[in-house]
Every structure is written in structure tokens, then in C-alpha cells.
Specification:
It is globular, with a radius of gyration of 14 Å. The chain has 85 residues and is mainly α. It has one domain: Orthogonal Bundle (Arc Repressor Mutant, subunit A). The chain has a two-stranded antiparallel sheet with strand order 1-2. It is 45% helix and 9% strand. The termini are far apart.
Length: 85
């Protein structure tokens, strides 16, 4: 991370992304359990001067792009870590 920007690369197709501050905030908040709409409300709209409709649209586009390159998994079901025995 440098100056609020982060770089990620797809292991699948070697596509390289430089994430701006907003995209970095989404990336860091993506924990597999928190819905994107909540990330947009609690992180993006709270920390950056952007309206919720634009933020949600842009966040969905960003997440879809990362998903297409195998960087981020999109699911309707929250991630449940395996129980420790």
C-alpha cells in the first residue's frame, strides 16, 4: 500500500489492479461475512464524500471486475470458517 492505494494481481490471469482509496477501503472491509451494501454504507459513504446510490453502483462494478479475474469470490452466503476441534 502506498499513499492510500493498494495493488493486487490476479493469480489466474496476471491482471494487475491499482486500487484507489475507495477501492482499498472496500478491499480491506471484504471479510466474507459483511454484505457489500453494508461496506458501502459503513465505510465508503461514511469516509468519502459520495452519495449512496453512486457508491453502491461503483462498488458493485468494482467487485464484479475483481470477481471476473478470480481475485474476489462473490457469494450470497456469508463465509463460515470451519469449526475448531
Amino acid at each position: 500500500m502506498l499513499g492510500g492505494e493498494m495493488m493486487v494481481m490476479s493469480a489466474t490471469d496476471s491482471t494487475f489492479f491499482t486500487l484507489n482509496e475507495v477501492a482499498t477501503a472496500i478491499w480491506q472491509a471484504a471479510d466474507g461475512r459483511t454484505p457489500l451494501s453494508e461496506i458501502v454504507t459503513r465505510k465508503v459513504c461514511a469516509e468519502f464524500e459520495i452519495d449512496s446510490e453512486t457508491a453502491q453502483h461503483d462498488a458493485e462494478h468494482f467487485v464484479e471486475e475483481l470477481s471476473r479475474h478470480g481475485i474476489l469470490l462473490v457469494s450470497d452466503h456469508p463465509f463460515e470458517p470451519p469449526a475448531l476441534s
